[in-house]
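Course assignment 3, question 2. Fill in each field.
Student: A.L.
Task: Predict the tertiary structure for the chain below.
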Amino acid sequence: MIRLGEQEPLIKPKGMKVEKGQDKNIQLPKVAIGVFSKHLFQDIVEKFKCREVGYLSTANLNKKVYILEYKKKLFTFYMAGVTSPVTAGDIEELHAQGVETVVIFGNCGVLDSSIEDCSIIIPNLAYREEGTSYHYVEASDTIEVNPKYKEDFIKILDKYHFDYTMGATWTTDAIYRETRDKIKYFKSLNVKTVEMEGATIAAVCKYLEMDYFTFYYAGDNLDGVEWDERSISELTNIDKKKEVAILALEIAHKISKGRD
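Answer field:
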């Protein structure tokens, strides 16, 4: 059996790609902020000073990368790729170009109907029902999430008067295989949320020896007789979601200050 740590990848990340006139050798700010929502991504680009410096590329999609200024600090800013394989690729490419810490946030489903729509969830453990994380760390049912920065983030939540829930998340590859039996099973383990990237973010960052923080805002509710979409549509409760985005900027700023 070949151990994970002994495997050398054939294809290695080279960093983001650039358009004509952009600096292909640019070193990105060490702290990056990734958001899964295209609407929140565009809102931040429009509200804050941002300079386009390149793009992350997949087979059928290019995602712009910016250098964002927030409270006199510079950050790498990008739209995080949905699903574990894509978000893993994002982190690998950004790390190859100088990023050492990522803050990634977005929507999730909840397995507890008492968690209010758009409220904040801080994952501290992920159940690994996806495939990507197993290529980065040894096989196990779970992986620790957010070993750092939870207390710093809670202080920010208190400052901005946000309620929050902390607990385990279920990371899956297959949104249409979130069956009633699986939901019942993970609820029995006191799992709070379901999403598609959490375990992989933790695994990739552990493998690359990167710092990170990831959090969610509550979307659809799976804790009922029927599925309740609530605010899973990106434009539903968009004003509240825009407030959530500030939390990501604040924790990134806190992390950046701590690195100085």
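Instructor remarks: The domain at 28-259 is CATH 3.40.50.1580 (Rossmann fold). The CA atoms of residues 81 and 87 lie 5 Å apart.
Grade: pending
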